[in-house]
Design a protein that fits this description.
Layout (H helix, E strand, L loop, with lengths): L10 E3 L9 E5 L1 H6 L14 H7 L14 E3 L2 E4 L2 E5 L5 E7 L2 E6 L14 E2 H16 L6 E13 L3 E11 L5 H9 L3 H14 L10 H23 L1 E2 L21 E2 L23 H20 L5 H12 L1 H17 L9 H15 L3 H8 L20 H16 L5 H8 L10 H11 L5 H10 L30
The structure holds adenosine monophosphate and magnesium ion (MG).
The site of magnesium ion (MG) has 3 residues, from loops.
Length: 488
Amino acid sequence: MAFPLQGDDAARHTPPTPIPDPYWVAFSKSCAELIDIPLANNDLPTDHKWLELLSGNSLETESNQFTAPIASAYSGHQFGVWAGQLGDGRAILLGDIANQELQLKGAGKTAYSRMGDGRAVLRSSIREFLCSEAMHSLGIPTSRALAVVGSKMPVIRETRETAAVCARVAPSFVRVGHFEHFASLQNTERLKELADDLIAKHYPDCRNSKIPYLELFKSISSRNATLVAQWQAVGFCHGVLNSDNISALGLTIDYGPFGFLDQFQIDHICNHSDHSGRYAYHRQPQVMHWNMACLASAMLPLIELSHSDEEAQTLLRSALEEFPITYAAAWQKSFRDKLGLHTSEEADIELIERLLQLMHDSRVDYTTLFRSLGNIDKSTLVKDIALRDHFIDRDGIDLWLKDYLTRLAKESLGDEARRTIMNTVNPKYVLRNHLAQHAIELAQQDDFSEVHKLLNILNKPFDEQPENESYSQAPAEHLQSISVSCSS
Ligand code: AMP
Ligand code: MG
């Protein structure tokens, strides 16, 4: 809700730059409902001015006026290195609507564009749109996407592509990078405004704490620890966990070269440009913790307002130590749920880790494997369990299945009831790269039907949808290694 800071050092007034002849590429009915946009029978806004607004060609609809569009300044660590000032290089915050912020990504240059053109291409806009809405339907905190608007305006990346604007929605787009920005400028007054605003709007419970700013840090860190556990559980790799891409609300933001795991590989790297594997699947929790350390050091001056240097450091250091504890608890809960274990035993962790190791060794498809675990009945014989065929190490998976059946026998829920619950945590449908790629290739020829179809499928990721069975399947071999770079 409304960017908290006024003044040129924090944000610049930035009207979007128009694009020629905009058209709808995709529109999310569910996001529109969130912000109370009246829709016609075709599930597009009744008010035609929305297309002009979301393309950046106008600042008003019949019922909304966005008089103060801004781009905000932030800084950050990129790939572990301090990158200095970044800022909204191509994101323009239009303003508030129904308690959410509405932002256009790719709506032209801003004061923070540096060498960039301020634009986004159709390809990356479709990916951000579909994944934002897919993550929401998976129950994972995320910024939302309202629409993608396209134009024939050329945009040069590795090749010539066309422009698009993705309209994003979130209660706040404040990032760790906003804190780092004012900390690096040693501007404690600004840091305080930022923190006070977050507490007032999004973390009101912090006010009841003895040290509200410390509580704010703990809350942000805890949300991000839980978030990354949810990513691990669903097999999502963000791809660019730079501190400027980490939300102060614990939302998944800034979708770029992300990927859902197909074949499970613990050290899978989804971003083609991530040569060292800094943001590989198994490193995400550590890297999020590292980002929280960046936040802690940026917030240090706030704790020092009421405590000595040394006390403040000790307080933040011990708050930071809560991250791995929160993460581990959330991870264990998520994976117990994925296995249908509703009671908890110490040995469950070893059972989960053994399964992941076996999946890694045989490169088993992540989503279909977890989904199929729900089909196992307590009384089944190991030799009759179809999923064992996916593993090369037969003895290993047979022993695991035997132990799993023994463990399941201790659960009081019947097979049907357990299956129903497991099917609410193990999705059938995720945004696999090859599905997004196919939809993008058609969209690049002006056929948006596959984008719409994917949005509909991914809106109900836990439903069986027999008519869409093929969308749940692992990609064919030649589609497994689609590489996604930072270029967007
Ligand atoms: P990202 O890698 O998308 O998180 O972007 C890092 C920084 O570069 C952010 O400040 C972006 O706003 C900015 N940026 C990325 N692409 C562009 C672009 N095409 N034009 C201007 N700024 C950009
Ligand atoms: Mg970013």
